[in-house]
């Protein structure tokens, strides 16, 4: 009676356990399974019991499952073994096993860990995407622990500073290498701990952007905005090159200052304080392309401010010599001078082509010249031009000039 009661209790436990319970023989056949297998794999127990379990195993897991079966046949426990079993709908479920051999029988309990595996895979994919994004961020990034040890730098950091992680194991080591000499007092451990203490006293992301002059491994100095962000027990440090932004802001400040000066204070204003030269260059190039004439803006002494636009071959040859270039500057100085009667139109004093020039003034101050032209007509004497070419040292090339 007691044996029947024990068997009954065992059967109740076996049938109703939420764990996947299995009795198999050492040849690799299911002998008895509990009802949890039907919920997990979708098969009726009669479709599983008496069949080799290898028939349900994922092809990629067959070899490892055979090895586990051999271990059990040799009376060795197999614990935390994971493989995939085919569901009746054709999909696979991840199963983790704890198997114990006893004489000719194997007793095993197992768990369906598919949700955990899929979550881990999704996390890995997410981390991979995150790492890819971080690696290619336009901002340089390094990650450090709260002791100042650098644990990670992205590709942009390496391109930006030129240092590999092995060369800068700590924030202090990095700081001593990259800060310009006048900033070195700020690169000690005191600098590091001072900033840590300050940002830990603030709230939220603890962002403290500041601009420093830093030096790359190649020796180039860059104006850099540095932002410190604490996330958990790690410090994220972002670096943004603001060199061009700083230059643009300084240029804008100069232009605003120049434009707001009283007209009687125009002596202190420079042409480059008023205009962005690269933007002005684009306007000049567009004008020359549209009109077919050469153009240039010069200082009052005739030396160039902008690059020549649409200059003809003759003038390029002349300006290619020291004498010719000096004469061109003198000509631009004279033709572009301040003139109350308006623009000056005449042959230039160097190559002899027709030029027009106008002085650019502000508050009565002449502070730049605008030259256009390089036009040839019947007035030019070719013999005189050749004599001039010999005089400045471009006679031979000029004789081939059509």
Account of the 3D structure:
It contains 15 helices and 14 strands. The protein has 402 residues and is of the alpha+beta class. The strands form three sheets. A five-stranded antiparallel sheet has the order 2-1-5-4-3, sandwiched between helices. It has a five-stranded antiparallel sheet with strand order 7-6-10-9-8, with helices on both faces. Strand 6 and strand 7 form a beta hairpin.
In terms of topology, how is this protein built?
Blueprint: H1 2-16, E1 20-25, E2 30-33, H2 36-41, H3 45-48, H4 62-73, E3 78-86, E4 92-102, E5 105-112, H5 114-135, E6 140-145, E7 150-153, H6 155-161, H7 171-178, H8 189-200, E8 210-215, E9 221-231, E10 234-241, H9 243-260, H10 271-274, H11 277-291, E11 294-298, H12 313-319, H13 322-335, E12 344-347, E13 354-362, E14 365-375, H14 382-392, H15 395-399
Task: Based on the coordinates given, report the CATH architecture of the largest domain.
Answer: 2-Layer Sandwich
| Helix proportion | 25-40%
Number of strands: 14
- What's the helix count? 15
Apparent shape: elongated
Give the biggest beta sheet. 5 strands, antiparallel
Helix and strand pattern: HEEHHHEEEHEEHHHEEEHHHEHHEEEHH
CATH topology of the largest domain: Beta-Lactamase
Low-confidence stretches: none
Compute the separation of the termini in Å. 126 Å
Highest CATH level, the class of the largest domain: Alpha Beta
State mean pLDDT (0 to 100 scale): 82
Radius of gyration: 42 Å
Strand order in the largest sheet: 2-1-5-4-3
Structural classification = alpha+beta
Percent of residues in β-strands: 25-35%
Number of domains: 3
């Amino acid at each position: 009676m007691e044996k029947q009661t024990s068997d009954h209790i065992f059967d109740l436990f076996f049938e109703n356990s939420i764990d996947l319970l299995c009795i198999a023989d050492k040849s690799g056949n299911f002998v008895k399974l509990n009802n949890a297998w039907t919920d997990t794999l979708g098969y009726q127990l009669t479709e599983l019991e008496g069949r080799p379990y290898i028939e349900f195993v994922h092809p990629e897991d067959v070899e490892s499952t055979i090895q586990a079966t051999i271990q059990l046949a040799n009376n060795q426990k197999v614990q935390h073994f994971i493989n995939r079993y085919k569901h009746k709908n054709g999909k696979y479920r991840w199963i983790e096993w704890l198997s114990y051999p006893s004489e000719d029988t194997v007793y095993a309990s197992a768990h369906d860990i598919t949700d955990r595996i899929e979550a881990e895979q999704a996390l890995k994919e997410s981390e991979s995407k995150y790492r890819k994004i971080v690696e290619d961020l336009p901002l340089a990034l390094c990650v450090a622990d709260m002791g100042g040890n650098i644990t990670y730098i992205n590709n942009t950091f390496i391109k930006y500073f030129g240092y590999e992680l092995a060369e800068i194991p700590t924030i202090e080591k990095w700081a001593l290498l990259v800060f310009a000499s006048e900033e070195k007092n700020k690169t000690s451990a005191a600098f590091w701990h001072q900033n840590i203490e300050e940002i830990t006293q603030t709230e939220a992301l603890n962002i403290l952007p500041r601009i420093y002059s830093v030096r790359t491994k190649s020796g180039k100095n860059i104006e850099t905005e540095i932002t410190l962000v604490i996330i958990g027990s790690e410090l994220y440090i972002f670096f943004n090159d603001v060199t061009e932004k700083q230059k643009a802001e300084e240029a804008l400040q100069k232009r605003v200052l120049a434009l707001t000066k009283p007209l009687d204070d125009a002596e202190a204003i420079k042409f480059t304080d008023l205009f962005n030269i690269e933007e002005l260059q684009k306007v000049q190039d567009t004008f020359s392309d549209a009109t077919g004439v050469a153009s240039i803006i010069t200082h009052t002494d005739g030396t160039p401010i902008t690059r020549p636009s649409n200059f003809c071959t003759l003038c390029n040859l002349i300006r290619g010599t020291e004498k010719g270039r000096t004469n061109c500057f003198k000509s631009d100085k004279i033709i572009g001078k301040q003139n109350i009667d308006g623009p000056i139109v005449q042959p230039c004093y160097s190559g002899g082509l027709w030029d027009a020039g106008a002085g650019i003034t502000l508050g009565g101050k002449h502070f730049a010249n605008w030259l256009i032209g390089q036009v040839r007509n019947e007035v030019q004497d070719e013999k005189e031009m050749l004599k001039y070419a010999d005089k400045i040292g471009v006679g031979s090339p000029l004789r081939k000039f059509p």
